[in-house]
Write a structure and sequence with these properties.
With 288 residues, chain A is mostly beta strands. Helix content of chain A is 9%, strand content 33%. Chain A has 2 domains: 165 residues, no CATH class; 108 residues, Cyclophilin. With 223 residues, chain B is α+β, with helices and mostly antiparallel strands. Chain B is built from 4 helices and 13 strands. In chain B, a hairpin with a 4-residue loop joins β6 and β7. The chains are: A mainly beta (288), B alpha+beta (223).
């Protein structure tokens, strides 16, 4: 049962284990963490018959190389990195098979799930890796991944294959306007500044990571954006001093002292995580 | 009670305009009530100085504003909590930070007076946040209120004691930060290694919301 199932031959630009997040510990200052793109990670688990909260392998952009140490069912979703296996569908892989992600073509985060699910050390109820606090650590070259259980997964005879329907597969290069709900400090922003936010196309800055995505554009003007520190949800659009927005991501702090104009619809937050630096995005307000 | 919508499945309760003991006790009372009788679909409660975030399962409670009347009724009936006389946790502190002189100068105090005043108060942990287990301690002596650094440091060592505006707190993991560093503590405030102790995973956190804390100055010691 504890036999490793996958070797991470090359970890590439980044490889961690993530599940749906570390619920219940934000009052202790612990970020939610979990898979950046919940949509793609959810599909990876679904394709191999796992529970939605089973840990998946999250890869950044490109460069990872995996070697199968056992036969398994596998599903690869998310960013397109020229993988040698078919993605967004359930694939049977055999021992010694090598899986490569040589070159990023679109999207940012890749998800890999196997039937039975991966296993990793759990802290505070979650296997999501949050290295900054020592809650798990990222994979290195040569890391071994265990399987949680031998799944009973099989594709029924007569079914040609299992795959994600076309309309559920997202185009990570076309940026439709992202829906923004009002945030706690919506009223702190003058109407003119709010219009400025929605009227322009923001560029995703290279200084973006699992903590937050920074947006470059024409800064909003505000006298002061400092508030008494208060809870901050993942997906919040925070406007710090300087007026350039930061979208708070999964490893972002659970409280913050800057005004929040709004919060992205969870589904659109998933989309945003896959937009690469340099892409332009715009927002549209959700009427309350 | 003022309720603020905060996206699908969430709502924020505004308790007070100013932080302090009064806001803390009301918040404590509401949280205890919500823990005792959790509303349907509630997933997580995140308290802070003056506000409480309630996150619901979005599929079960897409618009929590709709249940505000029920929530208000429940919270208004919540039994009062008394100011907890929790034991005071003493934390050894070395006052040797790089910003001691800045804090002293801006407040027209001597360095010795800054240290004396900082260690004289019994603080309460009003909330944890910013980073894992980072305690926001109140109330800081008015004479020690100091604006944040004009530009934040890129790396602050865990254990550093900081003053940011009207707050004081202790950094828990390596992180950037803009608070004035006046010293450091000797015991780790957050240590995931303590999570496997018999006290359970909460033992990772030395301090919890509501705890009372006093700094005990000790002589210079190399880290």
């Amino acid at each position: 049962m504890k036999e490793p199932v996958v070797e991470i031959k090359k970890c590439g630009l980044g490889a961690t284990l993530q599940d749906t997040g570390r619920m219940g510990w934000r009052r202790f200052g612990i970020p939610l963490s979990g898979a950046m793109d919940a949509h793609a990670a959810g599909w990876a688990n679904r394709l191999v018959g796992n529970q939605p909260n089973a840990p998946v392998l999250e890869l950044l952009l490109q460069g990872t190389q995996l070697v199968m140490l056992q036969d398994a069912w596998i599903a690869i979703t998310g960013a397109d990195a020229g993988c040698n296996l078919e993605t967004w569908r359930t694939v049977r892989v055999t021992r010694d098979q090598v899986i490569r992600f040589p070159r990023n073509r679109s999207g940012v985060w890749i998800y890999v799930a196997i039937d039975g699910g991966f296993e990793g050390p759990r802290f505070l109820g979650s296997a999501s890796v949050y290295p900054r606090a020592g809650l798990g650590s990222p994979f290195a070259n040569g890391s071994l991944l265990n399987r949680s259980s031998h799944g009973q997964f099989a594709i029924q005879a007569g079914v040609a294959g299992r795959f994600t329907p076309r309309e559920e597969r997202r185009d990570y290069d076309s940026t439709e306007p992202l829906r923004l709900w009002r945030g706690p400090q919506w009223d702190l922003f003058p109407e003119k500044e709010r219009q400025k936010f929605f009227a322009q196309r923001w560029t995703i800055s290279p200084e973006s990571d699992r903590v937050g995505y920074r947006l470059a554009g024409t800064a909003l003007a505000l006298d002061s954006t400092q508030i008494i520190s208060e809870p901050m949800r993942v997906g919040s659009v925070q406007i710090p001093q300087g007026g350039l927005p930061i979208v708070i991501m999964r490893d972002g702090p659970p409280v913050g002292g800057y005004a929040k104009l709004g919060i992205l619809d969870p589904d659109d937050l998933s989309r945003l995580t896959q937009y690469r630096p340099g892409l332009e995005v715009e927002f549209r307000p959700v009427e309350p | 009670m003022k309720w603020i919508p905060y996206g699908p499945g969430a709502i924020m309760l505004h308790i007070a305009d100013r932080l302090g003991e009064k806001a803390f006790l009301i918040s404590q009372r509401f949280i205890e009530e919500l823990e005792r009788h959790p509303p349907f679909g509630l997933l997580e409660i995140v308290p802070s100085f003056t506000r409480i975030l309630l996150e619901f399962d979005e599929r079960l409670v897409p618009n929590p504003m709709a249940i505000v009347p029920d929530l208000e009724l429940q919270l208004k009936r919540a039994p009062k909590v008394r100011a907890t006389r929790s034991t005071v946790k003493e934390i050894s502190a070395v006052y040797d930070g790089p910003d001691l002189e800045r804090v002293a100068e801006l407040n027209r105090l001597t360095v010795a007076e800054v240290c004396r005043r900082h260690a004289a108060v019994t603080y309460r942990v009003y909330m944890l946040g910013f980073s894992p287990g980072f305690p926001y301690l109140g109330l800081l002596d008015r004479r020690l209120h100091t604006p944040r650094l004009p530009s934040p440091r890129t790396a602050i060592a865990p254990g550093s004691i900081g003053i940011g505006g009207e707050h004081t707190g202790i950094y828990t993991v390596p992180s950037p930060g803009g608070w004035n560093i006046i010293g450091h503590v000797l015991e780790p405030i957050f240590d995931p290694g303590r999570g496997s102790s018999p006290d359970g995973e909460e033992a990772m956190f030395l301090l919890k919301p509501g705890d009372r804390v006093k700094f005990v100055p000790v002589k210079e010691k190399t880290r």
